[in-house]
User: Fold these one by one.
Assistant:
Number 1:
Amino acid sequence: MVWPAVIAGAGAVASLAGGLQSGKQQKQLGRLSEALGRQQARSVERAGAEQERRYRLDLERLIGTQRTAFAGQGVTLDSGSALDVQGQTAYIGELDALQIRQNAALQAWGIRSEAPLGRFISEAGAKATKTAAAGGALQMGSLLFGGGGG
């Protein structure tokens, strides 16, 4: 009659040890997730900066093409409609470049704001796992020493 209680006790100890290890792994996973989120946010910012840089180069080429076309038609570049068109192109292009920068910043912010949430969830899961394991150990202790269980 003692052997079932001993086996149950050994199972409870194994369950507790497994729960503690699982909780530790969940915490590590949460910290890793948070670090990866920060790294991903930096990557998004770098990609946004590169996209903005390339867009600005394309904008300069477009304005150069406009100037070449106007000059080829004998239009004065520094006044009138030719100057207005170049100015509007530069203005709209600047707004677009700023929008590219803003979009990257917002995306990075979203990633950064979610990164600690993964850590929090992992830590809460780790605590729940430890609590469940400890509860199982207490229940087995009750069976061993209390003689009951139900």
Number 2:
Amino acid sequence: MSLCDTCKDPGFCCREIPLVYKRSPVLFRHGTSAEQMTQFAKVAKLPFLPLRPFFCIKMKPERAAQAEIDGAHGAMFGYAVDDLAGHGEPHVVAQTWMWRCPHLTPAGRCGIYETRPALCRAFEPGKDKLCVHYSPPDQGETMTKAEVA
């Protein structure tokens, strides 16, 4: 029996998924539409659908220029937290998106479990912040859904 069989909120891990690359959120040009995100997901072969913009971030222009950029879709990969612009500094506005799995059943379970993508197979319940059973290595208590989000 896995943690998924006793989950307090089945499907939580697949309803709102942030894209992360090298421990940083994947950023897109500010104002990128859901239609453009759907196209990006197809090209990137992501098994998810765009849900909604999550937050906007200001980056120093020189750092945004140095990030690995998918020019066709405006995705920026590999920025670091210290690349953020402060108040009054010139900046580039980018946004992150939340994604969702289109195969999640109404019961919160995977509708394609036997043929799910490798990305989903690699997910380990309890070891990722997307899981409601996640417990950070240095703490012994389970985080609540509000703390994870």
Number 3:
Amino acid sequence: MTRKGILTAFFATALCLVRPGPIRAVCNACASDVVCNGCVTNTDIADGTITGADVSSSAALSVGSMTTSGSVGVGTAPGFKLDVLSTAGSIPLRLKSLASDTGTLLFQMGSQANSENAIVSLTSNEQQSKNLSLAGYSLGNIGHLKLAADQTFITGNTGMGVDPPGSRLHIMNALNNVGTIFALPPIASLPDPSYTHRAVMQWEGGEAKFGKWRQSFNTFENDWALSYNTPYDPVTNTYGGRDSGDSRANIAAVMRFNVAEGDSGGNVFEVHFAPPAAAGVPPDFNGAASYVFFDGKRGDAVTSRPALLAIGGPQDVDTGVQLLNAFMGVRMMIDGVTPYSNRFRIRDFYNGADYMTIQTPNGNVGIGTSAPGYRLQVGNPGDGTQARANAWNLFSSREYKTDIRRVDEKESRGILEKVKALDVVRYRFRNDAEKTEHLGVIAEEAPKEISKDGSSVSMGDYVAFLMAALKAQQAKIEELEGRVQKLAQANVGS
């Protein structure tokens, strides 16, 4: 550069220090004392410092530092203090540090009013870089964190209301607030056959053994449902193929609340277990074990309907219901468990004794027996069971009887002879723990009038049998009295 050029550049630079505006210098590229339009190079600015309100160049510019009181725009007219517009690629801004990776702060935004506490800070320190901290001064100035990306992936634990989180998702609820809300998109009316959000929540993992758990709610007359090892379509009320066919977990199950019917009696709570099958095979809940509770309907004698509890099982498996008081050891059972098929039982849980049994289909009732052979049986044969009451009345009205025939005197005398021939014995029942002594007859030796089966005695017939014998005996007594009276009168006359 000539001496004249050096002086010109000196005065031009000095002028720039006192007056904002574009740089005026002698350009090495064009040797012209004019405003440079994109041809300023590193050689033109030896000290590496530019001070001014505006620097504009279409060519690359590398400087040590730059201070400005205005705005800086890169690729665009600045609308902010720093405004970057990239047309060369998808990344508009890159921040990179060549310093050692020992905690160098790569990026920080803060506020001087908040003592320069970082609102967002990213660091190259390995430990610190695991945390992305979003906070205002005293942690009180930020109300929302919005992630607008289609997907958010977090490799570590996530805590909501708790720090540090102890699991992949750790939620600590605030007092008197709802802890977790799963919201559906707004729909004008439900049920809606076109509604496709059927599995609002799904648990999965370990499908080699276990099936998936799927939770649904507010889907076509189905307020809430939980299915296991099978997807559920509430619109068609059908189930898809099993996730797992492993023999340890290849059943399918569903639990469902339906409260879409109002006061119609059609509301239902149901639980079903389908028998095992291979993976991909849909469950058949019609032949499954089930528990179904139907809501009742209020109304008059015609329109009302009772609440109903229906418990069923597969056709090849017995079905039972147990109401257990484990503390007292008493269990009420309605079951079909072999050999007690189709019975209602109240039994002792510990010793297996049946306190009461109602047997179907014959309707026999047993007290103290599990196999009643009659409409009412108290105890088992030979166990000495006793029953007591203030009165025991037998139906005996003429209205209930047919083929009525009076026992005549001759038949009564025959019954008397049978009574005379029948031995009265003392005995104890073999299985009577109390060894109580009784007085009675042996059924096998008793006349058929009082023992129909040869193992028991009919008390009603027993009493009537003795009455007939008593009448025959009384007739004989009266006959003898008459003869004695005649003899006495004859003796008096003689």
Number 4:
Amino acid sequence: MTKEEIINSIDTILKYNNIGLSTYEGAVHYGELTNHIPGVKYQSQICSQVMNELLENFPQRYSLIHPPYNEFSKYVRLNEPKIAIVNKNDDIIGFEEKMKVHKDDILHRAFSVFIFNDRNELLLQKRADNKYHSAGLWSNTCCSHLYENQNIKDAAKERLFVEMGIHCSLTFLKKFEYYATFENSLIENEIDYIFIGKSNENPNINKDEVSDFKWIDIEKLKQDIDLQPDLYSYWLIEIIKNHKLLTKTIK
């Protein structure tokens, strides 16, 4: 494996820990981590070298933790990325950790991408079961937040590729503000930028983010939302029902 592939594997384990490694306060045991990187198992010296370089070169991204009960034990944490928080005029006033933003009801900037094919069918994704809210619900092609050192359109194109494996041009349509609360007490208080694009290729979904996909006619989608709203994300329903610019643009 290349160093980049090793780093991606490390990030995935630190984020999801889907192989059951020992943890402390959300961090993963350093020694166990170095023995469970795909492609370099039993080459812990190589993995340790990469991990040490990451800890040294990206101190804002990774943290090394020593539990108070054993100063010789080491645990590694992937720090929560910070997203853009804004005022009511949509001016960026700072950056804050994503979960804090959603727990503390802070207005922030986000985007929603809608990809259509030549038949004017919309590509939907089903959110993975491990998502922090709205898990397992059908939603638009992809969505996310604006992170530090990004512009909103580049962030949308990057996220489209990360989640769905699709490269295509995007057009900004409009932005709107919405507010929603969820059963786990998290809150979406967003100014959401809508982007639209065209593609006829089926996605190569990222299973860490997306569990399924489908193409659907907008009118059929609207009918199904009326019949089964609990199957869809809040913001998808909001956009489909209340923002006519989307459906006018694709005709």
